[in-house]
Fold these 3 entries.
Entry 1:
Amino acid sequence: MSAAIILGDRSHIAQGLQSCLQADGWSVKGWHRGGTLWGAGPWDLCLIALGAIEPRGAWSGLLRRDVAQCWHANLELPLQILTRVWGKKNPNASVCWLAGPNPNRADAGFSAY
């Protein structure tokens, strides 16, 4: 049985993907902010659905603190957690970073993207 882990398992896209993976016979474990990072076993797929779309607006008009929180939510935190589970990956494992609200292009005013 293939095993997947989902970081940010409370997001709508993660919940939909979890259902699809389970229907295809995958074992799925998840993590979300505020949750405890469980002892992940061997995994074949890691889906990263963590992030935040705030703050919105032009970079020049944003508070440094808000920009720093955005960078943390969208890059630093996912990398920190991925680093924790990296040693448990199976050979040929895949990592997929998900983006929102529109993965095809960055919308104006969404500095996170």
Note: The mean pLDDT is 83.
Entry 2:
Amino acid sequence: MVEQHPLIAQLATVIRQGWAAHLALEPYPLPADLGYVEGHLEGERVHIQNVCYQSTHFRKLHLELAQVGNSLDVLHCVMFPRPVYDVPLFGVDIVAGRGQVSAAIVDVSPTRVDHSLPEAYVQGLTALRPAPFQHPRPLPPWGDIFSEFCLFVRPVDGAEEQRFIDYVARLLHFHCQQVVTSAPLSPALAQQHQSQQSYYCRQQQQNDKTRRVLERAFGNAWAERYMSTVLFDLPQT
């Protein structure tokens, strides 16, 4: 891969260091042909690199770094909890085109059937909430999976980019602290969390922008397999 946008490289380091500091990581069995892939889109080379782990409390920890030539850099990360724990889904994405960050989003998406967050998260995220950004972005039509604390912005300068990184680092630290102290749920409640996590994955699979890029670079069948196997696989019973 060519050199990544500095914000994406910095955030990837923050995520990896956060995982290593808080979690006992084990390998996650990705399909052998999908860990690192290359393709072409409109004459430019496409690179996708996936890093995946699992742990006691997470069924899957996924970090994806993707590039389209020198024109597009993407970081995508989701921490999928095991449904037996009453914790939300941590997710963060950054899209940078030709050196400019066009989108940066981070959230802890609810997995309760009433779409609420645990009270500890409400209190913690209220305290962590960063100062307003100049250019907030609207959520996509399928964005009902996100929480009231979802931060979706277009940073206007280096100061806002750094503020976004700092917030993600603090949120990741808080999230890991909450998760590792969580007690298992009853089977009935775990089934509800599994259902809500499946809904999250199905909604994310409706992201037409991501799907179109993958289809143009690798074909429709490959894109469908990648979306449903690597990016947003459904939790198993």
Note: The mean pLDDT is 95.
Entry 3:
Amino acid sequence: MTDKEIVNLIVSGNEEAMLYLLYDRYESDLKFYAWRYYGSLAYLEDLINDLYIQLKGKKGDWQPLKSFQWRCKFRTWFCSVASHLFLEKKDKLIDLGSNTNSKDGNSGNCPLPEPEPEPVNEKLVMLMEAINRLENDDYRFILVKELEGYDHKEIAEMLVAKRKKENKVSFYRGKIVVPDAHYVDMTKAKAIREVKTIVEQIKKEWYAN
């Protein structure tokens, strides 16, 4: 399904379609912004929940989504909204994480603080940025899932499930491609070559001055 078809489902009342956008189609983008601003995925679930609430709107009628005019790519707009929200919530979330005092001042009974964000790993942030810029959806999916610790067989199974959910079929030389561990391995090699090129572009952008 296209982004527009999914958004139409959401505004018509299908909240599962919104969960699909957040936890499947654009999950890698959201993880990238979490890493970029927090240096950790510790707050990702809270951030996604805040994004869900913002997109649903104050009246719960998905007005922010309805207002999108489709004059640019939906992914560009969606990522811009997420990026601004994640940055806006940073101080609040980190303050919550560092609050170790209970309301009655009894430090012996106070709850454990939220985990502090880990120091920013610049190389990882750069890698996530490069992966985020990949045009090929399989490239992005495979590299992100490998970073999460899945092996090639597991990633292949996830790809099969993902394509069934999206009702997508890929062809090569007139034959349907069914992802397996070998496909993941070959696709990963192509993705890495492309990522290396993008990383060099990012370095020039970041260190131009």
Note: The two ends are 42 Å apart (CA to CA).
